[in-house]
């Protein structure tokens, strides 16, 4: 594949870069661009804060910081900073685990649920943006991409 032609970037020359290296770079650049666009979209919180709330809601029970760090694929320190900012905004709170008093569990507040309802579940603008990002990508290609990244994730966990 001719990356230079496909990327339509005249200030960069990819040369004979191996596809694995190109894909990792592409994923990193996409993540940065997506985060900037999502940060501009949400007025009250950042994309990473929004993602943390989504991940908390995906957990079967209220997660600890370590559990949330695993789900988010981020360090304990980074997740702690995100949670402190969300707590200041009234989006999360922590409670002592009933079974193990040493553990703190993270709970999403009513304020966060209100925000999600306005910006995620029923947010037509966010659905439009997601639709635009995946415009022209077939379900088959999307499934292949998901499977590839999941395999990469499993391989990474074995390093």
Q: Could you describe the largest sheet, including whether it forms a barrel? A: 2 strands, antiparallel
Q: What would you call the quaternary organization?
A: single chain
Task: Determine the number of helices (DSSP H or I, runs of at least 4 residues).
Answer: 8
Radius of gyration: 19 Å
The gross shape turns out to be globular
The name of the CATH architecture of the domain at 43-119 is Orthogonal Bundle
Low-confidence runs of at least 5 consecutive residues: none
Strand content: 5-15%
Task: Determine the CATH topology of the domain at 43-119.
Answer: Arc Repressor Mutant, subunit A
- Give the structural class: mainly alpha
Number of DSSP-assigned strands: 2
Order of SSEs, N→C? HHHHHEEHHH
**Span between termini:** 28 Å
CATH superfamily of the domain at 43-119: Winged helix-like DNA-binding domain superfamily/Winged helix DNA-binding domain
Task: Please list the strands of the largest sheet in the order they lie side by side.
Answer: 1-2
Average residue pLDDT? 88
Name the helicity range. 55-70%
Q: Which CATH class of the domain at 43-119?
A: Mainly Alpha
Account of the protein in words:
It is a single chain. The chain has a domain at 43-119: Arc Repressor Mutant, subunit A. It is 64% helix and 6% strand. It has 8 helices and 2 strands. Helix 4 (65-72) crosses helix 5. The chain is globular, with a radius of gyration of 19 Å.
Set out the fold topology.
Layout: H1 3-7, H2 19-41, H3 47-58, H4 65-72, H5 76-88, E1 92-96, E2 104-108, H6 110-121, H7 124-133, H8 139-157
Antiparallel strand pairs: 1-2
Helix pairs in contact: 4-5
